[in-house]
Amino acid sequence: ESFGKDWVTDVTKQLKLPNVEVLDAPYGQLPDTSKVDPAKDLVFTWNGTTSGVRVPNADFISADREAITICDATSAAFAQDLDWTKLDVVTFSWQKALGGEAAHGVLILSPRAVARLESYTPA
After folding, report:
1. Which long-range contacts (CB under 8 A, 24 or more apart) does 81-85 make?
2. pLDDT tens, position by position, 45-70
């Protein structure tokens, strides 16, 4: 998915985070979500408008995960059923499903995400 690949670029080439595992799939298909490790942070796009791929549900995210989930829900928020209990960081804008103007972003943080921010020390 195009936007998912942008997140991969941010994580690997801009932030240069160590030990990154990329779950990839051919364009227009979902990766094997059974390989998601609940001990590792997960960054994913819920609905890819460029490829037409969307996550059908959040069943692949462990309810008792150790890590946090970061979800790009730009075109999913207000249009699809999101399992908010499994999403720690959610980004979206109202330009898609609500038909608002572009260039306005919203960031939602769960208590788990806030705790991570408060305890994280950058290298």
Report:
1. 81/57, 82/46, 82/58, 83/57, 83/58
2. 999 888 889 999 999 999 999 999 99
